[in-house]
Amino acid sequence: MPLSKASKPSIQNVFIRQHSSPLGPLWSHWSARGLQQLSWEPPAKDDARQATLVPDEQGSMLDTMLQLYFKGKDVPWHDVALDRTGWPPFAGQVYDHCLTIPFGTTITYKELATLAGNERASRAVGAAMSRNRILLVIPCHRVVSTSGKLQGYSAKGGISTKQLLLELERHGQWPQHLFGKE
Prior knowledge:
Blueprint (H helix, E strand, L loop, with lengths): L14 E5 L6 E6 L2 E6 L5 H6 L5 H14 L19 H10 L8 E2 H7 L6 H9 L12 E2 L13 H14 L11
Parallel strand pairs: 4-5
Antiparallel strand pairs: 1-2, 2-3
Helix pairs in contact: 3-5, 4-5
């Protein structure tokens, strides 16, 4: 899903790094302020021209965190500096509260809207989640409908990926049927 102008990071002085994951390569985009984007989408050609190596400390820290996360471990994502440039005020509040959702649990769009200061803004929360450019770190996969059903997930694989991430967190391992493990 294309990013809105408000959530699309600037490509000036962006450092891009590839990270491995069981679901395919992840790409991190960094600015001087911190992590701008983490997604399974490869960088656009325009971004690739800006690509250079991420300073070792930041990139290595994220690599380690991602390896632990994909082994089913709770990771202290709060150690990652985030570049909040372009976040609209309400979306920023939503993301800040989304960061506090405990590993392995879910909350509803309505509950997240209430935490962000407007219990009637469930749809706005959904819109903010769909524009989340820092997947996993801002755990939008932990937000579900009031009925508990999984709603959209803008990352590669959609709702199937959301379900896999939630199962990984709840059980501390990938589902047995995944990757031919039966």
